[in-house]
Amino acid sequence: MSARYVYFFGNGKADGSKDMKGLLGGKGAGLAEMTNVGLPVPPGFTISTEACTAYYENGGKVPTEVDEQMEQSLNALQALTGQQLGSTENPLLISVRSGAKFSMPGMMDTILNLGLNDATVDTLARKTGNRRFALDCYRRFIQMFGNVVLEIPKEKFEHELTALKQSARTKSDADLQESHLEELIATYKGVVNGETGDDFPQDTSTQLRMARDAVFKSWNNPRAITYRKLNGIPHDLGTAVNVQLMVFGNMGESSATGVGFTRNPSTGEPEFYGEFLTNAQGEDVVAGIRTPMPITKLGEVLPEAYKQLRDITSRLERHYKDVQDFEFTIQEKRLYMLQTRNGKRTGLAAVRMAIDMQREGICTKAEALRTIDPASLDQLLHPIFDIDARKKTKSVARGLPASPGAASGKLVFTADEAVAWAGKKEKVLLVRSETCPDDIHGMSVAQGVLTATGGMTSHAAVVGRQMGKPSVVGCAALKIDEKAGKVSVNGKKAKKGDWVSIDGSTGEVFLAKIATTPSEVLQVVSGKKKKEDSEIASTFFEILSWADEVRRLKVRANADIPRDARVAVAFGAEGIGLCRTEHMFFAEDRLPLVQKMILADDPVERRAALDELLPHQREDFYGLFKEMKGRPVTIRTLDPPLHEFLPKREDLMVKIAVLKTKDKKKNRKKLEKLQRLLQRVEELHEFNPMLGHRGCRLGITYPEITEMQVRAIFEAACQVAKEGGTVFPEVMIPLVSNVKELRAQKEIVARVAQEVMEKEGCTIEYTVGTMIEVPRAAVTADQIAKEAQFFSFGTNDLTQMTYAFSRDDVGKILTFYLDDKNKILERDPFQSIDTEGVGALVRMGVEKGRSARPGLKIGICGEHGGDPASVHFFHKAGLDYVSASPYRVAIARLAAAQASLDEKTARVGD
Amino acid sequence: MSARYVYFFGNGKADGSKDMKGLLGGKGAGLAEMTNVGLPVPPGFTISTEACTAYYENGGKVPTEVDEQMEQSLNALQALTGQQLGSTENPLLISVRSGAKFSMPGMMDTILNLGLNDATVDTLARKTGNRRFALDCYRRFIQMFGNVVLEIPKEKFEHELTALKQSARTKSDADLQESHLEELIATYKGVVNGETGDDFPQDTSTQLRMARDAVFKSWNNPRAITYRKLNGIPHDLGTAVNVQLMVFGNMGESSATGVGFTRNPSTGEPEFYGEFLTNAQGEDVVAGIRTPMPITKLGEVLPEAYKQLRDITSRLERHYKDVQDFEFTIQEKRLYMLQTRNGKRTGLAAVRMAIDMQREGICTKAEALRTIDPASLDQLLHPIFDIDARKKTKSVARGLPASPGAASGKLVFTADEAVAWAGKKEKVLLVRSETCPDDIHGMSVAQGVLTATGGMTSHAAVVGRQMGKPSVVGCAALKIDEKAGKVSVNGKKAKKGDWVSIDGSTGEVFLAKIATTPSEVLQVVSGKKKKEDSEIASTFFEILSWADEVRRLKVRANADIPRDARVAVAFGAEGIGLCRTEHMFFAEDRLPLVQKMILADDPVERRAALDELLPHQREDFYGLFKEMKGRPVTIRTLDPPLHEFLPKREDLMVKIAVLKTKDKKKNRKKLEKLQRLLQRVEELHEFNPMLGHRGCRLGITYPEITEMQVRAIFEAACQVAKEGGTVFPEVMIPLVSNVKELRAQKEIVARVAQEVMEKEGCTIEYTVGTMIEVPRAAVTADQIAKEAQFFSFGTNDLTQMTYAFSRDDVGKILTFYLDDKNKILERDPFQSIDTEGVGALVRMGVEKGRSARPGLKIGICGEHGGDPASVHFFHKAGLDYVSASPYRVAIARLAAAQASLDEKTARVGD
To answer: What is the dihedral of CA B351, B357, B358, B360, to 10 degrees?
Structure first.
């Protein structure tokens, strides 16, 4: 038995249904479903996505079965309508549309009026009694077919049309007479012959086959590939082709065509939303030549059709349990539904719609939760550009959308400038080649950050998301001349103090000021506004409370300082999954102490410097514990290589070399000091610091550092406990690759904790666990679990080492690997976890860890904790919690709920 | 039933046997076996290694069962001998010795005469009629017990002995009278009390328990730990304790004691070898106070005992099928065997002994092969120091023994100096902080290389082994002041031109000239000497031919140039497992072309530079193919990051900064050129180049590089084929982490190969495979195997990424991790494969790879290919071949044979 490739719909029943989106595409499944439900759908058939796959496997040609089955369905359609393709008696006219599983702009979309040729156009003229209409249909068909099937640039046709209108001295298509249209048809045929060397195909079967194959081919055009990549759609799904009886919205004033939504897709308001044109075909509505009318007007123009449309779309919303985006045509007062699908929406609308639909009884809470794209929640947390202001401004370049939100400020080049200008109440935007920990004070006062280099997990990106600061990174077109105080971007120039704007959600860069409006949710979170006073914030938090009812995964936040912890709790974090103690070391009052510690010649000197650091660390932890009110706080001991705290080696080399060219006597002391410093920096220098002297290796070689940190943790904990608070510290050892490393560090933790607790006369419940971030740790997780009371996957580092991708350098490789032409990677593995490679190690770590310690608590604290697809993966892998940056806690909560719901569905489906 | 901890031997039968080395230690198993065989062994018992483990688990105390079982065995010994421990009638005197599974100098060894106290010493005097003898035994016992059990420094006793001899005006112990010895015993007791606060224990049971526990404790003394680490002995085996009836070689001139080997352990000659002393106890032979006599002299002094000894040791050699290292004592003409074990030997001796023993019918070829430590073969390949000259010179420091062999030369600091001086026929030794590819010309003319930094897989180490050049690296004590032309090492100084010597087999460094003798094997391999003229080389190659008869693993070599390939073939390599094409790029005539290629602004310019490189690469491959005569040649496409070929970034920055301080007009052009160069270097700069733009990522971003390399390979192959040669290239793609990378590169290989073959009218059989060196490749090996025709594990990189250890930086961490105090690692994972972590990924890669492509050919081409323990692992993991540096091919052949033999034994044992 050969495979089935073609599915018929019409006359109240269809071979397919709404559950066959994979096979029939969204549009095809929708047409089948609407037919089955009894809606007025023009009959036709869908050629499945499997035919598309077969087309590619067969070297760009469909297997003969597809042709045969299409022939059968065409016959059925001809029988149903009483029309024949190519007949001069009663010609069948059809539309051909693409339709993949996921809606995909950029793919070939629609060809209308197929079946017209020099003969059938006359029949159409005769049967409609409207020769001008028939000729207009024909010239449109040649134009569409020429453009999308024969790949002739649109301009070639537009150019001829414009020329004709000029010679006819008219500006509107509608003013063209029959003779003009006949002339235009001849000209268009000439364009086709000139561009392709062949005549426009008069054989209607050939027209159909060519159109079908063009749809298949458009699956792999660059725009489609880009769209799939941006939206994480697999490249091997293929598209279906929908062939459908033409209905005409352009048969006079009792005909119309339009598109609409059952609710407002921008705001979510429960209003019938859309637009239409009378006497028009589909593309006229979006072409912008005539101004469409708001859909509510249709009630006045064609009241019965309008009533039927409202009725049908309401039924569809209840049927699909989601907001519908539909297309319709009215041919001489008779309504035809051409398409329906779940509507795209903004984050704001998604939340509002979900709550309304549940209240209206259209869907359950679970069903409502599933209608929201977790990533879209982010839109509610960031300032957005004023829509009108944005429309007027053109972006000059695009970088990576590293941290979402719109920002506008005056260009500054250094963190110090940013601080200085911000002190003068100026809004600034920090533009740098790359940022480093030294820049944090500047980043925190800037409206946003723009860098020329770095990837989605570069310093600027990570810190940007951590701070909730709009950031665009890796904008390669940006050429910075810091000394001259100038930048140039694709030929445009700007200087210090000029206005620059960025959209961290799209990566767009503007050399202009654009007004922004702040996020209501953030105003509530930061206490500037009451939740009761914000409808947006109220719905936002209500949705999250629904999510909490169903999710299994706990959600924590990565937070290093009390302010971040407060935000995290406001967003619903159930604990801190990662406190990076080194972030505290970069503070201005501490860096000199840290440097003193590093430059110490022996343990005694080092201990003295550490003793000075201790009160600062204790204060930090005290603040965190207070803020978290007994929720677990995972504190990671010192992680980064020590040279990150010191001046750069190459800068010292240059300074010394330059000093040497000057008067030696005068500079001798300074030179000697620099040389001593360089010597120490050289000693700490590493070729691959990411694989070097960092993580627990620091605590093992300098146990006094771990001792100080543990002392600070437990002194702070005892202080809180004595004040009557509860506190639950979890001490986490980073970069463990061998269980013996953990054992050695755990011994220090236990010893110092005991010492402090005895001295303070206080008992603190605590655990000691480890990061699983080195491949060897995942591979030997059974051994490590014998010592570890919890695991936390550090998926950033794990991805680095599993993929051999350095986070700091991977930008240019990723750009190339994600590029359409190369298609090595579908997604940035630092954004969304690589389930096959890194994920396999995560699964292995979970399995081995729990084999040695049943019930072992396991979390993840990499950047992936805030990525919905990754959260799904972690749920399936059996983790206990994810930890995300505070501003992504809400996303993680919703994604975790959806993962639970998916699991339930899968179980029911078993 | 409680565990058995104590094993008796005596009266012709023993509880243990030679196969119980793990439980009884080597010595205990030997004593049991000798007893069972009927040899004259003083009776006693062995306390097992499990008691040692229990001692540590029990917090440094043996479980009561051990005490109980020891008591029983002691009773049995007392019954057999009719003597009682502590009895003043007939006192039992015993020895207590340590004995682990593997012979371990550095552990507590022996206590003699235990059972003596103030009372029993009188009985011994009375019964032997020799009070001086009894007193001497007692003072020796106090001294030994005081030192090894009570941990009193030896010097404290020696000091008293010397003082006594001075006051007695004698220089020899033998001249001390009874009264002197009585005085000395009193003084020694005073030392014990003074040092420990307790009296010397008079209770003989206490003496025994304390001695036993001291043996257990000595298992973890620093020297023992160091020894285990250097020799790869696990730390958890534990030691056994042997308690044995004392026999006395110091009961007059008819008594004697001695040690010996059944063959000469230095040369392997079949001569009875050893030394003895009459009227002496064991330690006198090695103490160096009296000069022992060669053992053949024993035939004259005590002919019957000698004849019995020759007879027994010959039997033992046949019994154990290996050369024996034995200890004996003759008490009043009666021979007692105290110990026998397989003798340690030099590489030279091992080969000779194996061949002789097989010829003499003592063992089979398989058994003979197993007597040779593969690593010791290395000793035959390198110059060694003249033994006498070496003895006279003291080493000043010790680094890592990176590439074996002895070298002596005049100190030079740069590669250019090395070349200049070598041109003047001077022998030079290159001393640098670290080496880089620029130094290769200097390394190749130097006698040896010494560096201050870097680990066992640093550049100097890898290239040193590759070249067979003696190298010591990471000698931290070495302070280099290149500008002043001076070095200082632990307070000693040397300047340019001074003689320096290094021993690459031990890591020792000498500031002196030491004469060396060249390797005969190497002279044969390089064609300077005929094999027939060298007995050493003949035996060496005969052993290898035996190994070939049993091994399953194939052995290839890593070789980049024809000269290395020739050496590899001479050593028996069956192919080239890794040709690093980038090594060819560093040659003086090519580097400018490579730089031109890298600095190219666009693909056209880059292609032009590549076109110039093509003939050079083709020539290289032609030479390799010719040399390998149809054996497979695995060629890896370009691997290292491109900036390795460019000037260092920091050097350029310094140059530019300095130039800027000078007359600007004069230097403008130079400055601009440098700035342009720096800009490109900055673009290529990476924070972690090991995880950066290298490996197949180069070939994917610059496909023209891969195209050029493939063209060169196939043009060379066609040329050889046309000349009638056979050739089998295997193109290997490095750093693949995702199957799509391999697919993309494979497509280029196939296309260009086809092009070349068509043009040349030639068909070359070839395969395309990949390195498995990124953890993700191992994890997704099933996907990768669908595209790869072979796998080659790059265990250097795989270790780097699995462990998060940067090869270039790991030195200081490893020093710390391998240190006795920390015991995080037992072995350097870059030297011997980490079977638990990296090894698990290798096993996974093999399993998944073959699941997708049954019979997939799999090899390994990291540094581990020449490490015997790793070769065993690779054999077990089911690999097809290992590829080692040419100079380690012989070691790999023998190790592979032993792995096959072990497997057979294991199967028989099933």
So the answer is: 140
Q: Which of A799, A801, A844 to mutate to test the interface with B (most CBs of B within 10 A)?
A: A801
B800 touches chain A (CB under 8 A): yes
The verdict on A740 touching B (C-beta cutoff 8 Å) is: yes
**Helix pair B49-57, B64-81: axis angle to 10 deg:** 150
Tell me, yes or no, if B459 is annotated catalytic. yes
**CA dist list (Å): B723 to A794, B626, B711, B720:** 57, 10, 18, 5
Whether residue B737 lies within 8 A of chain A, CB to CB, comes out as yes
pLDDT of B287 > 70? The answer is no
* Residue B1: per-residue pLDDT: 45
Q: List, in sequence order, every beta strand (DSSP E) within A315-393.
A: 324-331, 334-342, 384-385
pLDDT tens digits, A167-220: 888 877 777 889 999 999 999 999 999 999 999 999 999 999 999 999 999 888
**DSSP state letters, B9-37:** EETTEES--GGGHHHHHHHHHHHHHHHHH
Q: What is the pLDDT of residue B909?
A: 41
In the predicted model, is pLDDT for residue B870 greater than 80? yes
pLDDT at A90: 92
- β-pairing, A406-412 vs A428-432, is parallel
Q: What is the pLDDT of residues B658-678, one digit of tens each?
A: 888 887 788 888 888 898 889
Mean pLDDT, chain A, rounded, equals 90
Which residue in the set B654, B692, B840 is minimally distant from A653, CB to CB? B654
Indicate yes or no: CB of B700 within 8 angstroms of CB of A808: no
What confidence category does residue A103 fall into, taking pLDDT thresholds of 50, 70 and 90?
confident
Which of A657, A692, A809 is facing B693, going by the closest CB pair?
A809
A909: pLDDT strictly greater than 50: no
**pLDDT for the residue B812:** 82
pLDDT value at B146 more than 70? yes
Pairing of strands B881-884, A516-517: unpaired
Which of A697, A804, A825 comes nearest B735 by C-beta?
A: A804
CA A223/CA A687 separation, integer angstroms: 41
Q: Which residues of A are catalytic?
A: 459, 861
> Which one of B691, B741, B797 has the shortest CB-CB distance to A690?
B691
Per DSSP, B375 falls in state G
**DSSP readout, B323-365?**
-EEEEEEEETTEEEEEEEEEPP--HHHHHHHHHHHHHTTSS-H
**Chain B interface includes A373 (CB < 8 A):** no
pLDDT tier for residue A910 given thresholds of 50, 70 and 90 = very low
Q: Which two structure tokens, joined as six digits, stand for A510? A: 């503007």
What is the ipTM for the molecules in this complex? 0.79
Q: Which residues contact B301 (CB under 8 A, 6 or more apart)?
A: B256, B278, B293
| Per-residue tokens: B146 | 């005081």
| Interface probe, candidates B648, B808, B809, chain A, greatest A C-beta count within 10 A | B809
B240-256: average pLDDT? 91
Question: To which H or E segment does residue B555 belong?
Answer: strand B554-558
Question: What pLDDT sits at residue B508?
Answer: 92
Provide the shortest C-alpha distance from residue A750 to chain B (in Å). 18
The size of chain B, in residues, is 910
Q: Which of B583, B861, B872, B875 is catalytic?
A: B861
A591-625 burial code (b ≥16 CB/10 A, e <16): eebbbbbbbbeeeeebbebbeebbebbbebbbbbb
Q: Count Cβ–Cβ pairs < 8 Å, chain A vs chain B.
A: 186
The answer to whether the beta carbons of residues A776 and B802 sit under 8 Å apart is yes
* Span A228-240, pLDDT tens digits: 776 677 888 899 9
Interface of A with B in 820-879 (CB under 8 A): 822-825, 834, 836-838, 840-841
Pairing state between β B857-860 and B881-884: parallel
